[in-house]
Fold:
Amino acid sequence: MFTFHTPAITDSIQPFYIRSTSTPKPEDITLATFVPQDELSELAALVERYPGPISAVLHIDQPSDLPGTPSPIKRLRAMWASNPKVREQVDIHLITTPATHRQTAIQQQANLHRNLARFFARSDYVLLMDSDGSLPMTNVARSFKEHPQWIEKLRAGNVFVLPGFNVSTTTTSTSQDDMTVADVGLAPALSVANLPADKESLLVYIREGQVSLSEKTWKKTIRNVDFNAWAGQTRLSAIQNYDPYFSPSVVMRRDKMLWCPERFGDNHAACMFELYLSGADFWVLPNDFTVNAATRPENVVSDREQMINTRLYQKFHEESCLKHARAFYAAGEWDSDRARHCRISCQKGMFSFAYLFLVS
Structure:
């Protein structure tokens, strides 16, 4: 971790700024996430939906002494004092942004946040959640307790996918006369209190159009998870044709797994792709899922930033392919089952040149 960060960022990290009153067991699954300083209410939503331990990174601007300046620390302590579940479940790891970095640094360090939340988790396994307002709708830990064989797969370094969904949005206006697109307000089709708590309810909401498929899991160009198959699925299913832009919420080991590449800031797909190339199998959970409640807008990325990130990510694909392929060769494992993901990815599309260079 921290390869692409200056001491001005990393020296401002305070692990366990607030420590939960309970001690997680090693076999627990800790929800690891990042909470934006303007969205502290999401902590309350998380503890209502997730019964287990939570490791959350809070990244704030340098506190100001000016009167009337909002203080996320004061709001956090007020929440901690008033909410017993927050006190019992949540560890907060604080990052304070120096005055020279400010808000843009906070928006672009999501992979650092993911790594820190996972690193400071106090159990052997983590549920790596995005900080986009998504909530786990089911008791993931109970699912694993009911299937001990899944734990064995986790210990072996495999990854379990929670399919993601979005609450649909509807217009808040009743009249369309003389109205431009900018005038039309959007509101979630479901309130947080009415979100589906099980797969059966979820499928009903999808048929009614109140819940839609999240592009992070079900994007048309991504064929990792087939929704029609998942809808009737009662057992684990393995992902066969991996797409490097796949970026779902996952359950994985806390240790002995690769960290998220921090050069991309907010590219969660880079984390998953590295894990896949290193040999991890991805298994889709049959009954667990997440739902984005559509309570806040998505981060806006400029066209220039999007273009730079796309080019960097394409180079990253090639570098990662070559790096893992060389490591498998050096260890004498290129023909092993563990290297099969790398073999397949290195021989197609943008990786073909790196593959030919490696084997020549």
